[in-house]
Amino acid sequence: MPVLTAGAGKTRLHETLALLTSQLRPDANHKEDMVFLKDVFSERSLGYLMKIHEKLRQYERQSPTPVLHSASSLAEDVAEELQSGSMSTEEKELLNLLLSPHLKAVLSVHDTVAQKNFDPVLPPLPDDFEDDLEEESVKIVRLVKNKEPLGATIRRDEATGAVIVARIMRGGAADRSGLVHVGDELREVNGVSVIHKRPDEISQLLSQSQGSITLKIIPAIKEEDRLKESKVYMRALFDYIPLEDKATPCQEAGLPFKRGDILQVVTQDDPTWWQAKRVGDSNLRAGLIPSKQFQERLPLRGPGLRDRRKAGLRRSFRLSRKDRQGSSGEGSDPGESEFLTYEEVTRYQQRPNERPRLVVLIGSLGARINELKQRVIAENPHRYAVAVPHTTRPKKPHEKDGVEYHFVTKQQFDADVLNNKFIEHGEYKENQYGTSIEAIRSVQAKNKMCIVDVQPEALKRLRTSEFKPYVIFVKPRVPESRRRRKNSLIAFLQQDEDLQEMRQSAIQIDQQYGHLVDRVLIKEDSASACAELRGILERLERESFWVPISWVRT
Q1: Where along the chain is composition biased (Basic residues) (predicted)?
Q2: The CATH number of the domain where 277 resides is what?
Q3: Are residues 169 and 79 part of one domain?
């Protein structure tokens, strides 16, 4: 590793970063690591972040304070002075600025902020507050709580009847104070005894308290150590609405999320209720979510949630390849075989000289994904390619083996099916067709991005660390209805039936396989869909994405 020169101590952070990058030299033993570090350090966004950091630190050292507290009145005085005599062009422009309502509003806000001290100040303890001096272990906790929840849940101890702090929500007011811990016994809230109150009455008392809140607690015998924030990330595979879950210990503390959201699980101490944050959410306070084990026991929690999850999974639907027969490799239905909860994920970015990720297209009726795939590949055949399928039909005179198809005998095809070599296969007009795993590997070996379109059942077979597939669900924009043509009732009814089938196809695929999809592409027309797909493929090569952690673990 290179050593910086003595003068580098006075160099600014972003300049040090640039100097470090220039001194990275790949060697035979660590070539890939050095190339990776150089790529990371050379990112323009990282350099910008370093410059922003330096500016903020410089601003912090200056300890900025308002120059004056009456900018509005000063602007009024200047405007009055300008109007008292003849004005030049520049003075007229200045007057117009000073009289504009937007600048007046900005100056008014400036004065309001400059005249106030926004640091929280706790009022003194009331004179009539009893400290319970006979109990040496009693502790008085004063918190500043605005309109946010306190960030703690309580429970009644069945043996003693005491009100106990059950959990502390990470990032909430109680957690930030560092003064309240799991296991503490709560005695009073703002001087009101809670010993004989029900938990819901206590929760209401806590939620209604604003500004300063005073708690009298008896600390737990063994206070838990404040754990460092976890770096476990989960992709939600279902929708969750705390207000509809009667099992949650505190609906207000629950974290709502949708399928596909990335959740940072900050603690799994409670085997039933985890604490988590949504990645990208500005709210720093964690919320409660059902643990994986608890969510899998949904039948014991009531039929409502599970009924909504399983709705539609038993109904058959018409696939886009409706004329085909056969199976898609293993022939299993991921929606029926397991009850989906969470999938642990991590960020992944394709490295230089690493095999490109597989791109998988699935589509509902009317999506015409093969046409979309072929158009993108034709635009750039040096970067993208299709896995050449196998078939038992006779080769036509203009065709070449291994180009349009791999032409094989029926006996060879059946043997390959038995050996599980196809990701999907089927029959069309008494001929067999199939896409093999080796065909995909052959494309990737040429350092090309392989694009395949398959029926959704094949996804489970493809989701492996070898292929790291990026799944795109293409569905056409389906209008609500079409205008009825005169004297064409039959055609109108047929069109309406087709539209309904297209909608139903998209709904069914989403219900059964939506948790495996990385991106939904709404196809307005071929040109716009092609442009959107091209943009997705380009980002796959340069940006990082969330993938199952099992794909990158060695």
Answers
A1: 307-319
A2: 2.30.30.40
A3: no
CA–CA gap between residue 39 and residue 21 (Å, rounded): 9
Tens-digit pLDDT profile for residues 501-517 = 888 999 999 999 999 99
Query: In angstroms, rounded to a whole number, what is the distance separating the alpha carbons of residues 66 and 125?
Result: 33
What global pTM score does this model have?
0.58
Please indicate, yes or no, whether residues 437 and 466 belong to a single structural domain of this protein: yes
Q: Pairing state of beta strands 232-236 and 211-218?
A: unpaired
Domain coverage including residue 110: 71-83+93-114
347 Cα distance to chain centroid: 11
Residue 129 DSSP code:
-
Long-range contact set of residues 371-374: C-beta below 8 Å, sequence gap at least 24:
371/526, 372/474, 372/523, 372/526, 372/529, 372/530, 372/533, 373/451, 373/452, 373/453
Q: Which residue reads 């075989």 in tokens?
A: 337
Find the helix or strand (DSSP H, E) in which 278 lies.
strand 273-278
For 23, the token pair is 């001194």
CA distances (Å), 350 to each of 46, 149, 347, in order? Answer: 18, 42, 10
Which segments of the chain have a pLDDT < 50? Answer: 1-10, 132-134, 222-227, 303-304, 306-337, 486, 489, 492
Residue type, 308: R
Question: 405: which DSSP letter?
Answer: B
Give ∠ CA 426-438-33 in degrees, rounded to 5: 140
